[in-house]
Write a structure and sequence with these properties.
It contains 2 helices and 11 strands; from the N terminus they run E-E-H-H-E-E-E-E-E-E-E-E-E. The protein is mainly beta and 153 residues long. It has a 5-stranded antiparallel β-sheet, with no helix packed on it. It has a 3-stranded antiparallel β-sheet with strand order 2-3-10, with no helix packed on it. A 3-stranded antiparallel β-sheet has the order 8-5-11, with no helix packed on it. The two termini are 23 Å apart.
Length: 153
Amino acid sequence: MTLNVRFSTNGKSGGGGLLEPQADLLNDLAVASATEDYFFTEQNENEDRSFTFSGLDKEKGYKFYIFGSRKTNATDIRIVNYIMSGSNEYTGELQTSGDNCGGEGIHQNIKDICESEMIYPNENGEIKFTLAKKQGSYAALNALKMEEYTNVK
């Protein structure tokens, strides 16, 4: 994995992510050391943030499972587009924070996961992953799982 541009990061202190993930809501993405911090785009950054997975098998497909969340006091609506592009492209959407987005009085995402369609690497064996702000000042990525599939082309 190669970062294409600089990302900002945040952890437990201040504006951290989901500190106590629940396995019954997030399944195997409920790992506190992953959900409590995140990569993000800053408020004044207009450029989307991306990284590239390389060395992938062009004969296989890949699915992505994405979780994003911002500390519970962030009541402004933040919606992120996660864009995966290889020989095909998929854009998924996830609300990471907003008034009651995780339930009554819970202003952070605690349960929603963006699951991609099957993505195939480009001719160089690469898939680019991009975070783009759809609504709000920030776009966060807390946890990401990538699964490889055979015999899918």
